Structures are given as C-alpha cells and as structure tokens.
Model the fold of this input.
Amino acid sequence: GFRPKHILVTGGCGFIGANFVRYVARNHPDVHVTVLDKLTYAGNPENIAGLPQSQVELVVGDICDTALLNRLVPECDAIVHFAAESHNDNSIADPEPFIATNVEGTMRLLEAARAYDVRFHHISTDEVYGDLALDDPERFTERSPYRPSSPYSASKAASDHLVRAWVRTYGLRATISNCSNNYGPYQHVEKFIPRQITSILEGMRPKLYGTGANVRDWIHVDDHSSAVWEILTRGSIGETYLIGADGERSNIDVLRMILRLMGQPEDAFDWVCDRPGHDRRYAIDPTKLRTELGWRPAHTDFERGMQGVIDWYTNHRDWWEPAKVVTEARYRAQDQ
Ligand code: NAD
Ligand code: DAU
Done:
C-alpha cells in the first residue's frame, strides 16, 4: 500500500473535509496535513480547531491560484480534494461559482499534481449518476452512466471526467470516490438534516420540499472518512469506488424521526415548493469497495447516529447561529 507522509487536503474547513482532517489526526498522528481552504461562506476554521499545530496547518487560499499551488503541492506526497461549491439549491440560484471552483479549480489542482507527480484522490458524489425511480430495484454502480441533473452535479461530473482524462493521458496516479449523502457534526445549516434540527431548536417549523417522498442514501461522515483513507492508501490507480452504507430513507421519514427524537409532534412541519429538477432517489451499491478493499461502515444504526447529531447541534449553538440567520434569509428569498 501507499503510505503518505504529508497530505494536502483541499476544502478541509468544510463539513466533510474537516471531519476527514480530524479522522487523520485521530488515527494517523504521523501524517502531516496541510489544509488549503478559501473560507467561503461554507468554510469555518473552527471546524479544525484544537488539533495539534505540529500536525495540522491551515493555508487560506483558492484552489484556482496556480502560484499558491506551485508552492504547496511540491511539499506533499498526496492531495485529497474535497474543496467544492456543494449545495444544489445555491447552484440553481447561481451556477457560476460551481464552474469556477468545481471545474476550473479541479483542473488547476490536476495540473499541479501532474507537474510534481503527486498522488491525487478526488472526492465526488453519487449525484453524477442522476436519479433512480423510487421503485427501481437497481442501485448505482461504478458502471452506471453519467446523467447529472443540477448545475452542481453537472460540475462534479465534469470534474470526474477531468480526473479520468489526466489518468489516461498523462498517467496521473489518481483515484475517484463517489459517496452518498453524509450526515454528522460540522455540516452547514443550509443542508437538510442540520437545517431541520436547528430550526426546531430555534422554534421554527421545518420545511419539506415537494411530497417528501424523495429518497437519499445516508452515511455517517466518519464512515466516508474511513473509506477515503482505504482508497487513498490501498485503492488501485485509475479506479473509481462508490461509497455507501445501505442507508436509504425518504425525506419525510428522516424528518419525522428528527421531530420524534426532539419531542415534537410528527406533523409539526411545513410543506414548501419543490426544488426544480429535484432528483427522486439516490442509492449506492458499495460491493466493489467492500470486496476489493474490505471496507465496512462502523455507524450502522441511523437513529443512534441521528441522536448524536441532534446532541451536537444542541451543544454548539455558537457555531451555527450566525450562519442560520443568513441561510434562512437566503431561503426566504427563494420561497423555501
Ligand atoms: P462544504 O460546502 O461543507 O465545504 C466545502 C469547503 O470547500 C469549504 O470549506 C469551502 O470554504 C471550501 N472551498 C470552496 N471553494 C473553494 C476554493 N475555490 N478554494 C479552496 N477552498 C474552497 O462541502 P461538503 O459537504 O463538506 O463537501 C465536500 C466534498 O464532498 C465536495 O467535493 C462534495 O461535492 C463532496 N460530497 C459531499 C457529499 C455530502 O453529502 N455533503 C456527499 C458526497 C460528496
Ligand atoms: O448525494 C450526495 C449529495 O448530497 C452531495 O453531493 C451534496 O453536496 C449534498 O449537498 C447532498 O445533496 P442533496 O441535494 O441530496 O442534499 P440537501 O441536504 O440539499 O437535501 C437533501 C434532501 O432534502 C433533498 O431531497 C432535498 C430535501 N430538502 C432539503 C432542504 C435543505 C428538504 O426537503 N427541505 C430542506 O429544507
């Protein structure tokens, strides 16, 4: 296997990137981590606060900044690329930053990785495969056709294609993972689960899009981190791995579970107008990751995981309150 000594983690102040940095600090204290993050509205240095300064260093900057990459990339032996504009609703309101960061930014990083011959792992999403019908017996596999629906998922699909082209044309040592919906601490309050939990804590009614029948395949963020580590260190170059933990649930079931765990009536929410082009269902078949790399999720009890997330938001009001005000104003302007 590959034993990285110094990894560059892009987007390491966002939700999944920060949880990955914490995972590495916890499990691999010998690995040095440089976080490169632009600190957009979604990035918060608090997300990686308290880690040993000798191990984790933050550089505030843009993945599109070639001069900066030419300084940082030669110092590391692997790049784990999380940085992205990540929210579908924002991409529908304004697609432009999604192309700049997700497409151009990925190209700039690939060029730096090529110039200095650095191992590259690309973090992507199951949304590149579009959606499934609610009653389709099939799930997404590594062979599913690309069929993205939103500007966000189209930009992630473009970035996946760039990575494959750099592998085939330039021989870049790269892998790709496409993961399903993550839940856990440090997730921005614009996303479904934190939005609903923090609304209830603020005495506001949760908002469900459309009929609530849409299905997402939930995985705890720590299980995403462990899978990425296995792929980075033991995955085959040029390969794609789907990451999922058999966590399919409809939005209305998830919302009712949150309301129940928080002591509210299960109908204490509002129906709001649907997301344009709303994907019906995502579902991952993780057979390749399980059989080739022997990976298994540790968080298999969703209700227990949800209780942990509710406790985390209950105990971290200072972390989310400033973002909550801004986010709800943005949603109000879109009638969501
Ligand atoms: P997030 O929005 O919480 O965090 C993104 C981070 O990237 C932020 O810290 C932000 O400041 C940083 N960033 C944005 N543009 C940048 C730029 N130009 N240069 C440097 N840094 C920049 O996102 P997330 O939910 O943690 O998602 C992380 C990655 O995982 C993304 O690539 C996303 O597509 C992918 N992913 C997310 C999920 C999910 O459920 N959230 C599932 C599968 C894959
Ligand atoms: O599948 C992986 C993807 O999961 C990632 O690539 C994205 O970065 C991540 O944001 C997430 O995308 P979704 O669009 O599935 O997540 P979101 O949290 O925005 O919404 C989850 C579901 O909940 C979706 O069907 C829309 C619905 N929803 C969302 C919000 C914010 C509501 O019903 N009400 C809401 O208030």
Remarks:
- The mean pLDDT is 98.
- Residues 10-11, 13-17, 36-40, 42-43, 62-64, 82-86, 101, 105, 123, 125, 156, 179, 181-182, 188 surround nicotinamide-adenine-dinucleotide (ligand 1) (CB under 6 Å).
- The longest helix spans residues 96-115.
